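RECORD TYPE: inverse folding
INPUT: structure tokens
STRUCTURE:
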């Protein structure tokens, strides 16, 4: 069995599933299930599950692709359902078991192995998709198993520092985000002093169960979540000294600078800044837009909210957990060719440029490179080459589902010694990580 490294998706968000029927554009070209009918005469129904990130952040792209699909396949009905990260996997598992799986499904990069190993996905032809020769390697790896491609990279994500430049200017005399952690903590201390009258104000909003952030500090310390040993098995390594060092450092930062409820996760952390409760947080680049967007945030902060590279404790940038999503055709789809063509259109050069124009990292290096010099995307785009990934293990999905690492972090912040908490977490990981979920 070939082993590969997986990546994770953006944090858990609440479900907002809405099913709408609409026509759109795409087309069969060589994938299994290809229709012999001309596009204009092709009939059928294609069901697509997209995560609600698209609904919130690039609905115009979704509509444009759907319109194109409708123009090409006027007799095909497209049913689009938006899903939320919190319970998408449970819904998908049930749909597959019931024989009602969507034709196209968006998967977080850590979810792909589960569905590949279970035979739930159909292979696709890499050569038929735009920019496949320059796909970001780590993204393509999440879709590749035994020399076959089982899904198509959709977009990448890297975490950055998101900060209120005005708050930094007022407290420190500089609107720039510090480049070293020593300078950052000094600035955060000044911000804390300036806002000491507000007991709920967090100089750095760093959620306690935020395992993506915590494991970045583990990576900075030279630790890891798990390793593949010579016996052919994965085993947890959070109890290793370097991993414990990174976890302890993360916990210290949380305790000192996050004045909110330490048990709350990062899913809506942008709200803390939008409500004037923090000067900075560590998040995906697109979360900066959420801070200032009408409806979700405070538009008056538009000129104040900036992004920068998050400094790590070792004098280098904090290693980022590269996120992202893939798009797959389910194995028993009766419309595999149409489903593949919709994905083809949704990941085309034109579509990827639409994402890049919204400061979302595209799936390929050709379109990523210009973002490395753009102020709003430079920090995230430049972080991609050195990003870290979750273990490539059959049971990794189960480890995430059981929330072993977030629960470990919460226990530590409630007073459980790091040594015991990491030992217990490793034992729990070892029970799941080698079993296909």
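DESIGNED SEQUENCE:
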């Amino acid at each position: 069995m070939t082993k590969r490294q997986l990546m994770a998706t953006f944090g858990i968000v609440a479900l907002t599933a809405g099913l709408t029927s609409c026509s759109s554009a795409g087309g069969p070209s060589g994938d299994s299930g290809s229709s012999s009918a001309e596009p204009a005469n092709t009939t059928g129904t294609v069901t697509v599950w997209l995560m609600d990130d698209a609904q919130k952040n690039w609905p115009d792209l979704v509509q444009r692709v759907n319109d194109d699909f409708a123009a090409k396949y006027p007799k095909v009905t497209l049913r689009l359902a938006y899903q939320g990260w919190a319970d998408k996997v449970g819904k998908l598992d049930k749909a597959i078991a019931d024989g009602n799986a969507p034709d196209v499904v968006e998967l977080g990069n850590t979810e792909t192995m589960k569905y590949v190993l279970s035979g739930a996905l159909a292979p696709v032809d890499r050569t038929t998709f735009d920019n496949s020769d320059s796909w970001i390697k780590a993204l393509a790896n999440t879709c590749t198993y035994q020399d076959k491609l089982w899904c198509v990279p959709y977009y990448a994500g890297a975490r950055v520092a998101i900060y209120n430049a005005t708050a930094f200017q007022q407290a420190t005399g500089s609107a720039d985000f510090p480049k070293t952690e020593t300078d950052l903590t000094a600035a955060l201390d000044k911000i804390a002093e300036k806002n000491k009258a507000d007991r709920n104000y967090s100089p750095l909003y760093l959620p306690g169960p935020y395992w993506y952030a915590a494991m970045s500090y583990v990576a900075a310390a030279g630790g890891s979540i798990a390793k593949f040993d010579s016996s052919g098995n994965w085993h947890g390594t959070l109890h290793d000294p370097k991993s414990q060092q990174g976890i302890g450092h993360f916990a210290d930062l949380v305790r000192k600078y996050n004045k909110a409820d330490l048990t709350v996760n990062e899913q809506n952390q942008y709200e803390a800044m939008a409500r004037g409760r923090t000067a900075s947080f560590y998040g995906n680049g697109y979360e900066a837009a959420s801070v200032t967007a009408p409806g979700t945030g405070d538009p008056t902060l538009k000129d104040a909210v900036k992004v920068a590279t998050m400094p790590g404790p070792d004098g280098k940038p904090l290693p980022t957990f590269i996120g992202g999503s893939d798009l797959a055709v389910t194995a028993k789809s009766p419309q595999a060719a149409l489903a593949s063509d919709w994905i083809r259109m949704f990941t085309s050069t034109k579509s990827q440029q639409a994402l890049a124009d919204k400061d979302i990292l595209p799936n390929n290096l050709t379109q990523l490179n210009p973002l490395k010099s753009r102020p709003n995307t430079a920090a995230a785009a430049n972080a991609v080459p050195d990003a870290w990934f979750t273990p490539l293990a059959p049971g990794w999905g189960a480890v995430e589902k059981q929330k072993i690492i977030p629960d470990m972090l919460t226990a530590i912040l409630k007073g459980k010694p790091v040594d015991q908490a990491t030992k217990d977490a490793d034992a729990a990981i070892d029970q799941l990580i080698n079993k296909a979920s």
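NOTES: The first helix runs from residue 52 to 57.
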